Amino acid sequence: MSKKKDKAWFVLFTVPLLFVFTTVVIIPFIIGIVYSFVSWDGIPANPKVFVGFDNYVKLIHDDRFLASSWHTIKFTVLSLIAVNLFGLLLSLLVTSKLRVSNTARTLFFMPNLIGGLILGYIWQFIFTDAFKLIGQKTGLENIFFNWLLDPQFALYAMVIVFTWQMAGYTMIIYIAGLQGIPDDMIEAAKVDGANMWHRLTKIIFPLLMPSFTICLFLTLSGAFKMFDVNLSLTKGGPNNATEMFAMNIFNEIFGYGHYGLGQAKAIVFFLIVAILTLTQVAITKRKEVQM
Amino acid sequence: MKRSSKLIFEILLAAIALAFLSPVYIMVVNSFKNRAELYENALALPSSLSFQYYSKAMDKMNYLTAFGNSLFVTIVSVAIVVILASMTGWMLVRTDNKLSKIIFLTLVSTMLIPFQTLMMPLMQVMDWIRSNLHIPMLNTHGGLIYMNIGFHASMAVFLYHGFIKSVPIALEEAATLDGCTKFGVFWRIVFPMLTTITITIAILDVIAMWNDYLLPSLTLSDKGLRTIPLSTFYFFGEFTIVWNLAMAGLTLTIIPVVIFYFFAQKYIIKGIAAGAVK
Question: Where is the ABC transmembrane type-1 domain (chain B) (predicted)?
Fold first, then answer.
C-alpha cells in the first residue's frame, strides 16, 4: 500500500516537469537527428527526401560553413584569453582592499545583466560613429576608424564586446575562489620571503584551479555558442567575415530554407561543443590541487 | 601593501572602472542630443536635457507593451520552473533507485545541447501540436512560457539536486510520522529550507529569460506580443538608424535592468557565484 502510494507521489512530483522537458528538449533532439538525414525546404506541403549522409558530406565542402568555423575558433580563443585575463585582473584588484573596490565590483558586473542583443547595438554606435569621430579629432585614424567595415577588426570588435560582457562574470567567480584561500597561507609565504609574483604563481594560481575550470568552461561554451552580439553588432558582416557557427546554422535553416543541411550542421555543432567542453573540464580538473 | 603602491592601484582601478562605464556614458549623453550636436561631438555632454527622443522611442518601440510582455513571460516562467524543478529535484534525491539516477543523468547531459541544435525540430514539434492537438503553442505567451520551462528545467533540477543532498532528512521523517503527506512535507518543511538556492535559480533564470532573443523571435510573430529584446530588434530593423533616437531606446531598455540590479545586487552577485560553482 505504502509502496504504491510512494510511486504515486513520485509520479505526481516529477512528471509535470519531465513531460515539458521531454517535449521541448528530448523529442526535438531525436527528431533533429532524423532531420539531418533528410533534404527538405521547410514547407510542410513539400516532401522530405531521405538522403543518407549527403548533408554531412555537403557541409564538409561548404566553404562558408568552414569559414564560419574558423571565425568561431578565432573568436573563442581570443575571448577566452581576454575575458579570463581581465576577469582575473579585476578580481585581484577588487580584493586588494582598496577604497573604490565595492563600487568597482558593482560596475564591472553590470554589463553581464544587459542582454547581448542590446550590448551589440550600443557598441555598434561606438565602433562606427564614435570611433570615426575620435579618429578625426585626435588624428589617430589608423586606430580609430569604423571597425565594423574591416573584416579583421570587426571580429576584434566582437571580442571586445564579449569581454566587456563576460569579464565581470568571471571576476565574481575568481573573487569567490580568492576568498577561499586562507590569509595565513599568504602571510606565511610573505614571512618566508616570497615576493608578490611568487605568491601569485606558486600559491594563488594553483589554488584557483577550480575557479579556472569553471570560468574556462563558461567562456568557452559562451563564446562558441554566441549569437546575439553577432546579430546586433555585425550581422555577420562585412561580407560574412564575422559570421559564426550559430549564425551560419540559423541562416542555412531559416534564411535559405535548407532545413536538412542546416540541421546536419546543428548536429555537428552539438558534437563539437560537447567534445570541447568535456575535454576542457577533464583537463583542468586533473590540474586542481587539494589544499 | 605600501602606501604609494596602494595609491597607484587605487587610481588604476578607478580608471578601469571609468573606462568600463564609458559605453553607458556615450549611450546616455547621445540620447539627449539632436542630430547636429551628436555628429559634432559624440563624447560631449548634451547642451540641454530634452526628453523628446525618449517619448518618441517609447512610442515607436511600443515600449510599455513590450515591458509588460517581458515581465509577464519572465515572472510566470521563473515561478513555474522553481515550483516544478524543486519538487522534481527533491523526489530524485529522496528516491534512491535506478530510475531516479537515469532521469537525473539524462537531465544533466542535455545541458550541453546548444539551442541551435534544437530550434528547428522544436518549431516542428510545436507546429505539430498546434495543428493536430489544437493547442496554440506558437505565437502565444503561453507557448513561449512552456518552452522556457523546458529549456531551464535541467539546470534548475541540477542545482536543487546538489543543494537538497546536503539537507538532513530527519525533519522530513519526523513530519511523516506526524501524519504529513509528501505534499505537506515538501511545501511546509523542505521548500522553506531551499530559499538560498531558490534565489540563485530565480536570478539566473530571470537574467536569461529577460534577455533572450532567439526563442521569442522564433515563436512570437504578432507585434503586440513582442518582448523587449524583440521590439528592440525590430526597432533597429525598421528604420535607418537615427542614433539619438536609438540611444534613447536602448537607454529605456536598460533602465529596468539597472533598477533590478540596484535592488537585488547582493543576491545577484552571491547567486551568480553560487550558481557557477555548482
Answer: 67-264
B125 HSE (CA, 13 A, CB side): 22
Side chain identity at B175, as an amino acid letter?
A
pLDDT in tens, B161-179: 999 988 888 888 888 888 8
Structural domains in chain A plus CATH codes = 62-287 (1.10.3720.10)
**DSSP-assigned letters across all residues of B231-243:** HHHHHHHHS---H
| 251-290 in chain A: CB under 8 A from chain B | 253-254, 259, 262-263, 266-267, 269-270, 273-274, 277-278
The CATH number of residue B233's host domain is 1.10.3720.10
Burial A245-265 (b: 16+ CB within 10 A, else e): bbbbbbbbbbeeebbbbbbbb
Give the domain range for residue B163: 62-238
- B83 part of a folded domain: yes
> Is B175 inside a domain boundary?
yes
Bridge partner residues of A39 (DSSP):
A49
The answer to whether residue A149 scores a pLDDT higher than 80 is yes
The helix or strand, by DSSP H or E, that contains position A38, with its residue range, turns out to be: strand A38-39
Cβ count within 10 A of residue B37: 17
pTM of the model: 0.89
